[in-house]
Fold these 2 entries.
Entry 1:
Amino acid sequence: MTRSSPLTPHPSPVIAIDGPSASGKGTVAERVAAALGFHFLDSGALYRLTALSAMKHGVALDDEAAVAALAAKLPATFRDGAVWLDEENVTDAIRAETVGEGASKVAALPAVRAALLDRQRAYRQAPGLVADGRDMGTVVFADAVAKVFLTASASARAERRYKQLIEKGNSANLPALVADMQARDARDTARAVAPLKPAADALLLDTTHMDIESAVLAVLAHYTLCMARSKQGN
Ligand code: DC
């Protein structure tokens, strides 16, 4: 795999978009990728697929070696706008709250993170990549040309998740969602390996009072600025 250094910049630029769950980063990242014609990596989906795979195989979510072995050989593909595990369409299954909870647990295991590292880096291809996750700018693509940390208050994020669930015909309980959101943030932030935190050089974008379109424009403007700076050699 090609590695970049300050002397040999990687030919395919990466925009790293990190942040807590339901901050809107997935939608923003996908739209930024579409606007630029870049590839898109939803790294959270890989952790969700790992958790789902462990659940299906009856592997305990805290059995680090066994979960990492599954992660290393994850028979997952992204095609036709859907997510597949072997030949099963798991697009909806990986979005279930129980799977999100499981993803947060397996994501705290260092061997699982290591097992998924090269798979994530392989998404970096011409003309460029927009990568969405928790540690895109700090670990996986630490040399990303533009880094954004997208956030919103826990109550704003819980409300967004609540609306999504209701729109899909599911039942939802707002106070329970706020509590789940805070518990997941706490686990993702407190873990020893690749915790959820902004990279030192990330743009902090608080979307509590911002719509998706404005957030997309802000990320595109930041990318343009970063590219201009990197061409000037700063
Ligand atoms: O973004 P998401 O909600 O689909 O992520 C699911 C879980 O995966 C989340 O609780 C944290 C974890 N995750 C991670 O640790 N690192 C990433 N790069 C992406 C997700």
Entry 2:
Amino acid sequence: MPELSSLKIAHQTGSYEIRVGQDLLDSVAELLTNIGAAGPVGIISNATVNDIYGGKLREGLNGAGFVTRTILIPEGEEYKTLASAEQVMSALIAQGMERSGTIITLGGGVVTDLGGFVASILYRGVKLVHVPTTLLSMVDAAVGGKTGVNHSSGKNLIGSFYQPDLVIMDVKTLETLQIRDRVSGYAEMFKMGVIRDTNYLNFLVDNMDELLQGTSLELLVKAISRSCALKAQVVESDEKEADLRRILNFGHTLGHAIESTLGYGKMRHGEAVILGMYGAGWLSNQIGDLAQEDWEKLSAMLRKIPMEISLESLNPEAIEEATRLDKKVANSQLNFVLLHGLGDAYMQTGIPTLMIKLAIDAIRTAWEGRE
Ligand code: NAD
Ligand code: GLY
């Protein structure tokens, strides 16, 4: 029998279910009916994902009597913008989307972030169902209610907290994913292990090859479900990121700065987060209290994750400058998620910006010395 897991996430005004399993694309119409979704269904996707999975999704929905409209956004992080969101809304309005309708996002984190944002503001909010199709969007972007678009000054600077009504994760869709996108999603699961659960971290490290190759769907269901459950614990206790939720940004202060200085599209989000986790671990060891033994373990695990990237164009000065624009800067002080130990993360304020440059040097040295 195919592995299936179901998880309920509570939030300030209700709760929603996350379904993880195989062949769930066939059940979307039934699951929509179960949550009382009606009206026109606006499917937001991109051409790559729509070509592979859009037909199957529409077939089930139309067969069950749902009227569907499909709006495609161009491929790539550089199109996760306010301008794209406006174009999507114009198309939805022109095609008869109603206040009582439902938006389904079908795609990776770019689609779930932008589609979720559209759902949160169109007609002041419509029903939202995420159908994430990348590993990263399953374990992170589609869970927890953060939606948004990028601004020329930085990533995700415009957005909203808007909880979905349902999240459907069909692990079979991961079969068509490129290896770099598998690595990218693995990075976010790895992050959950580092900040919350060392047993899970060891499980991920022990099964890294199989998870990256996607040879066992059962293993993927297990890994994804645990990562979502760990994220849910954090988000349920701090939905709007006033306190604990900030630890989910482990590796992201440097990661976002690396992504934005290199130019969107040069590096996958999770690849940048792997480098950012290395930098944050290094800082934790240098100025925090991460023991040498834990740091050596973490740095070895991170450097073993397969990544074919060149760090030649990383510019420490530009990255330092970019960290100042990060949402985690408060009162001109750089806030950074550091580690007391593996499985134990905390937010440290007042990190001197000089340390950012040194952390980037440490990352470059470590990656140049990889076997
Ligand atoms: P992505 O959405 O760009 O998808 C990566 C690539 O995979 C794209 O080319 C896409 O077309 C393709 N693709 C998607 N599904 C596929 C499939 N099943 N088979 C083949 N190809 C497929 O990237 P991503 O890594 O999924 O998401 C990154 C985005 O997520 C970033 O914008 C990041 O900021 C955001 N994010 C948001 C949150 C949040 O909490 N909201 C958390 C983490 C990341
Ligand atoms: N991806 C970080 C968060 O959801 O808070």
